[in-house]
Structure formats: C-alpha cells, structure tokens
C-alpha cells in the first residue's frame, strides 16, 4: 500500500524555529545575561560553546535547504538531486535491487547530519569540561588557608565563588545549546524519515 504523500513544510518549520532562536538570543543579550556569562566565565569555554553552536546552526540550516530541495524533487526525475537521480535509476529495476538502492540513498542523506550529532556531543562534553575546570578553580584556594583571618577568608570565598560561576555557566551553556541543536537535527531526521517511508512504499 502506498503511503500517502503529505506536505512536509520542512523549510517553513525550520525558519520558524530559527526565528525563535534569534528572538531568544536577542532576549538573552537585551537582559544582560550574555554579558554576565562572559564576565563570570574566566575559562572562556562558554564563548567557545556559543561559537561552535553558531557554526552548527549554520550547518543545520544549510542541510535544511538541501533536504527541502530533495523533498521537492520526489515526483520529478532531476539529476540535480539525489532523490531525482534515484527516481531515474529506479525505472525498470527489480524489487530486490530497489531495496539496496534505497539503503544507499538513506545513508547518503543521513550522513549529511553526522557532523551535527558530533557537535551535539562536543557541546555537552565542553560543558562538563567547564564544570571540572570550575571546581578546580573553586578548590584551589583551600590549600592557601593558613589561618582564620576574616579578610583572607573573604578573599578566598570570593575566588571560590568565581570558580563555582565557571562551573555553573559552562554547564548551563553546554546543556542548553546541545539540547537545542539536537532538537534542530531531530526536525531534519523526522522529515527525512517521512520522505524515505514514502519512497519505500512508492517503489514496492
């Protein structure tokens, strides 16, 4: 039974999500939270995380445009897209050969998102690395305590709070960006799965 082809609206959904990301980023900057993170994170890992997330978002939207073009060529035989070439090759091919060609097509389309999922893992690991660095910075002053002078203790507590800020802000930045990026690539995967299911039913 042929699965019904439904409108995908991938580009529309991705554009809406990108608009929400821009609006959220504007709010973070407007409320001064971005400056607070930059000033509090002495390790500068949060800046690295945000830069990598920005690069990954550009890569994600580029993949969205590519997949949207692929989806638009489902019912055409164009050599400009993978699905278009797949339609050409499928003419007169037996069912057992169609399965292998569909697997190859799925691999080629899915591999474009491999870098994105690698970056998701890197963002999470960088956040955890910042946590470790923050705790190290927080615990270092303890070894300097030689007496219980209130002025020295106050200075040490201030240094320890800076280390805690590094740990918390890097962890928070890493977790939020990795979750957002994972959702962004899930949006691509869901559209890709819907497209492949349609093609699978179409040529069987």
What does this structure look like?
By secondary structure, this protein is mainly alpha-helical. It has helices at 10-30, 33-40, 45-72, 82-89, 95-110, 114-139, 150-202. The mean pLDDT is 82.
Distance between the termini: 8 Å
Question: How large is the share of residues in beta strands?
Answer: under 5%
The backbone outline, from C-alpha atoms, is elongated
Percentage of helical residues?
Answer: over 70%
Along the chain, the helix and strand elements come as: HHHHHHH
Properties at a glance:
204 residues, mainly alpha
Helix/strand layout:
Blueprint: H1 10-30, H2 33-40, H3 45-72, H4 82-89, H5 95-110, H6 114-139, H7 150-202
Quick rundown:
With about 200 residues, the protein is mainly alpha-helical.
């Amino acid at each position: 039974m042929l699965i019904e082809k439904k409108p995908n609206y991938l580009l529309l959904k991705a554009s809406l999500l990108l608009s929400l990301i821009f609006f959220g980023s504007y709010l973070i900057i407007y409320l001064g939270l971005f400056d607070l993170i930059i000033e509090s994170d002495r390790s500068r890992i949060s800046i690295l995380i945000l830069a990598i997330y920005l690069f990954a978002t550009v890569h994600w939207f580029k993949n969205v445009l590519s997949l949207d073009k692929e989806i638009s060529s489902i019912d055409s035989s164009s050599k400009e897209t993978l699905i278009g070439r797949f339609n050409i090759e499928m003419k007169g091919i037996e069912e057992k050969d169609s399965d292998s060609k569909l697997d190859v097509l799925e691999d080629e389309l899915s591999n474009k998102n491999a870098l994105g999922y690698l970056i998701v893992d890197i963002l999470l690991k960088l956040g955890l690395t910042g946590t470790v660095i923050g705790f190290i910075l927080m615990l270092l002053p303890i070894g300097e305590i030689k007496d219980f002078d209130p002025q020295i203790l106050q200075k040490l507590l201030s240094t320890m709070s800076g280390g805690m800020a590094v740990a918390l802000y890097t962890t928070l930045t890493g977790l939020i960006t990795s979750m957002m990026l994972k959702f962004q690539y899930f949006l691509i995967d869901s559209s890709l799965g819907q497209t492949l299911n349609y093609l699978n039913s179409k040529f069987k």
